[in-house]
Design goal:
Elements lengths: L12 H10 L3 E5 L3 H14 L3 E6 H7 L1 H17 L6 E8 L2 H9 L4 E4 L6 H17 L3 E6 L4 E3 L2 E3 L7 H11 L3 E4 L23 H10 L4 E4 L7 H9 L12 H8 L3 E6 L1 H17 L6 H23 L7
Helix pairs in contact: 2-4, 2-12, 5-6, 6-7, 7-8, 9-11, 11-12
Bound molecules: glyceraldehyde-3-phosphate (G3H), 1,3-dihydroxyacetonephosphate and zinc ion.
Length: about 325
């Protein structure tokens, strides 16, 4: 058993409470490799932002959980050596079983998500409560989910979303004891969030549902998944240099900024990091076809990621200066 406290990490309780009070959100950034992690912590330190480092089941399989634990420990040493004391949580994103959550808690995660959103209300509540009962014994915080986002949720694909039903949230959080709740108000995972007719605007998020949820559970920590903006500049660079991303559309930044002023305390962003990295790698390799040193194309990709995360912290989620 490795305790996250020994790694210098924190759970999400205090950072979410402060985010709700301060009307901003903490960024939940996914990582799978060293360059992404370096960029997230560098931007976090530069902007003095709290951070939730997110690892999906797929990322854990890809990067190896032992290595991930050491990477998180290394990241915390870098933060300390840099004279920063930003709070950092290591979070399992879209955990799909009790056993996976337990394994992550035992390997040093400070926060886990149990995603029972595809189950019936009763099954979701029972599974979430089981995870909460174990996690809280170790002072690990738990995120649950009610409502379904369209797109891929860690190997589970949902063609259609269904919005969170506000009338269910109170019973869910009371029954389960969960620390935060992901809800569905119109975001979705991946780079193709909305199917638009030519000239059609991106539909606004369902702030009416968010308001209704807040009325039922005032001050409770709400999480938004699927919140990449699918930055058009990156999509254009990818397409210019041989990629083929047609009709990729994300959530406009102003909508996320607005959501962060509600009780939305964490905003999850993964796809934008993938797009930034792919755009820079494609651009570099196209302009320097003789290059074959990975540092020469991963380095510029990492620099671009730092710029992007800094921008999100400062202008989208509003977490800059809030550590
Ligand atoms: O919400 C899903 C995240 O973007 C993780 O994606 O399962 O491909 O690592 P992944
Ligand atoms: P995006 O695909 O919009 O980046 O969503 C990421 C996410 O919700 C991770 O859990
Ligand atoms: Zn998600």
């Amino acid at each position: 058993m490795y305790s996250y406290k020994e790694l210098g990490l924190v759970n999400t309780r205090e950072m979410y409470a402060k985010a709700i009070d301060g009307k901003y959100a903490v960024p939940g950034y996914n990582f799978n490799n060293m360059e992404q992690l370096q960029a997230i912590i560098t931007a976090g330190m530069e902007t003095d932002s709290p951070l939730v480092l997110q690892v999906s089941k797929g990322a854990r399989d890809y990067a190896n959980q032992i290595l991930l634990r050491h990477m998180a420990r290394g990241a915390m040493e870098i933060v300390k050596e840099g004279g920063s004391n930003i709070p950092v949580a290591l979070h399992l994103d879209h955990g799909d079983s009790y056993e996976l959550c337990v394994s992550c808690i035992e390997s040093g995660f400070s926060s886990v998500m149990i995603d029972g959103s595809a189950l019936s209300f009763e099954e979701n509540a029972a599974l979430t409560k089981k995870v909460v009962d174990y996690a809280h014994q170790h002072d690990v915080t738990v995120e649950g989910e009610l409502g379904v986002l369209a797109g891929i949720e860690d190997e589970v694909s949902h063609e259609k979303s269904h919005y969170t039903r506000p009338e269910e949230v109170e019973e869910f959080v009371t029954k389960t004891g969960v620390d935060s709740l992901a809800i569905s108000i119109g975001t979705s995972h991946g780079a193709y969030k909305f199917k638009l007719e030519p000239g059609e605007e991106v539909p606004p998020l369902r702030f009416d549902i968010l308001e209704e949820v807040e009325k039922r559970i005032p001050g409770f920590a709400i999480v938004l998944h699927g919140s990449s903006s699918v930055v058009p500049e990156y999509v254009d660079i990818i397409n210019k240099y041989g990629g083929n991303l047609e009709n990729a559309v994300g959530v406009p930044e102003e909508q996320l900024r607005r959501a962060a002023r509600y009780a939305v305390c964490k905003i999850n962003i993964d796809s934008d990091g993938r797009l930034a990295m792919t755009a820079k790698i494609r651009e570099t390799l196209a302009n320097k076809p003789a290059e074959f040193d990975p540092r020469k194309y991963l380095g510029p990709a990492r620099d671009e990621l730092i710029r992007m995360y800094r921008h999100k912290n400062e202008n989208v989620v509003g977490s800059a200066g809030k550590a």
